[in-house]
Every structure is written in C-alpha cells, then in structure tokens.
Amino acid sequence: MTEDYSQYPKHLVAVDCIIFGFDGENLKILLVKRNFEPQMGEWSLMGGFIGSDETSDEAATRVLHTLTGLENIYLEQLKCYTEIKREPTARIMSISYYALINIEKDIQINEQYNAEWVELKKAPDLIFDHNDMVKDAVARLRRRASTRPIGFELLPEKFTMKDLQNLYEAIFDEKFDKRNFTSKVNSLDILVNTNKKDMSSSRKGSFLYRFDEKKYNKKISQGFMFKI
C-alpha cells in the first residue's frame, strides 16, 4: 500500500545566497535590487526556487552561476528558514548558503539583476528575513575562518602578509597586532614565499605568498589544527 500524500499541504522551497567578497580592505556582500513584487526596488539576497530535478546544493550552484558566471567556488549550506509568514505571497521555506568569491576573478555579473558589491558594514536593510541570513552567515564565516583556511578563497592566488591581515581584520571586525599576527601565520607553516614582491605598497616592497593546499592537507592528516 502506497502512502497518499495528497492530504498534506504543499510548500515552496527556495535557496538564498549570501555572497561575500573582499576588496583588499573591506568585506563586501553582493546584493541585488528586486525587479518584481513584492517589495520591488528594494535590496535582496540572490535566490531562486529549487527545481523538481535538482538538490538544494545544485540549485544554489545554479543561482550563483546565473548571477556571477562563476563555477567551482566555495559554497556552504547555512540554515533553513521556515517562519510561517516570512514571505507575504506564499508559504516559502528557504535554505540559505554562503559563498566566498575572489573579487579579482573574472566575474561576469548578470545585468538583469542590478547587482552591486556593498561594504558589509554599510549594507542597506534587506527584504523579508534576509538581514537574519546575513547575520547568521557572518557568524558562521567567523567560526570557519578561525579553524579552517577558507579565508584564502577571498584572496588572489598571490598576496602579501598585509593583505592577509587586512582580510582577517575585516572578517572579525577587529585590529590585530602586526608582529603577533605574522608570527602566528608563519607558525602554521602553510604559506609559500614566492620570492616575488608587490612594489605598490612601498619602495622596499612586500613579499608575495600563496597558500599551499597540498601541504595543509598533509598536515591535517597528521593531526594539524588550523587556528588564527
């Protein structure tokens, strides 16, 4: 005997994406301006409904690609939002994801969505419960960044120690002592000095580093604990 599900209510399920970027000084978030009702013209996260032939992960990946043209970026499921009246038009549950994008990548923002990078600290109020999603995503990003090297997803392949410090200060919204920060990062032994310099910051220049993922994975298999 097959269970008859027709007696149960049917709900819509969507995904919403909190997309973080870093411009070298500030943590940013990619927002879109709604071009349809309700709340047309207001700022929103990028989202979409989950298709009948895709998982929520696949839907989030599709939504991100539609907006940015990018593939294979850091994407992590965050939380499911199910408040009964979270949207005024229908009962819609949303699974949120946060993504980390290197702004220097060849991003092809889809003009259809009127998207803009906005400094996180200066972000406008968002529709529905999207402010809560951003708040939850920032909290998760900080937890992850303190125990995993996901912050490198926001940096170009080669970066200075100052770039790295700026990034972590932006993520945690606090200032770090330069000497202590550099000493802590060097003690992790997961960066490679490229022996090339960024000459834009000073006459002497600053060495450029890159994250050694293979070395990090090997150290993790040996019990290494990443902590900033």
From TrEMBL:
Keywords of this entry: Hydrolase
InterPro entries with a match to the protein in the record: NUDIX_hydrolase-like_dom_sf, NUDIX_hydrolase_dom, WH-like_DNA-bd_sf, WH_DNA-bd_sf, WHD_NrtR
CDD domains, per database record: NUDIX_NadM_like (cd18873)
Keyword Hydrolase assigned: yes
Domain Nudix hydrolase positions: 9-141
Domain of life according to the entry: Bacteria
A GO molecular function held by the record: hydrolase activity
Name of the protein: ADP-ribose pyrophosphatase YjhB (NUDIX family)
Upper classification of the organism: Bacteria, Pseudomonadati, Bacteroidota, Flavobacteriia, Flavobacteriales
